[in-house]
Design brief:
Layout lengths: L1 E4 L1 H17 L3 H18 L5 E2 L5 E4 L6 E7 L2 E4 L8 H8 L1
Parallel strand pairs: 1-5
Antiparallel strand pairs: 2-3, 3-4, 4-5
Helix pairs in contact: 1-2
């Protein structure tokens, strides 16, 4: 099984990573590590995330405010846009 971030999810992770790194050296790397750890937990336990619209599930990353939305795929888990918005409409257009 694999974990893959969509292009948009990868792009949206870069902003908070750069921002955190600007605030404190090493903080961006810790944020990135937490995002990767949350993605690995989603892969290992895909049904443990909170059910969401369109068959997706959500998971909070430990140690930071990152919230991942993911769906199961034939190869494993697909991570969608990790953003601050929790509005269902925001995510539904990104799950297509």
């Amino acid at each position: 099984m694999q974990t893959r971030f969509t292009k948009q999810a990868r792009s949206e992770l870069l902003g908070p990573t750069a921002c955190d790194e600007a605030v404190e050296k090493g903080l961006g790397g810790r944020f990135r590590s937490e995002a990767q750890a949350a993605a690995q937990r989603a892969k290992a336990y895909p049904l443990h995330g909170k059910p969401w619209a369109a068959g997706a599930r959500s998971r909070l990353a430990t140690g930071c405010s990152l919230w991942l939305l993911y769906t199961r795929a034939a190869y494993g888990v697909r991570i969608h846009v990790p953003a601050d918005s929790r509005l269902t409409e925001y995510w539904l257009i990104r799950l297509a």
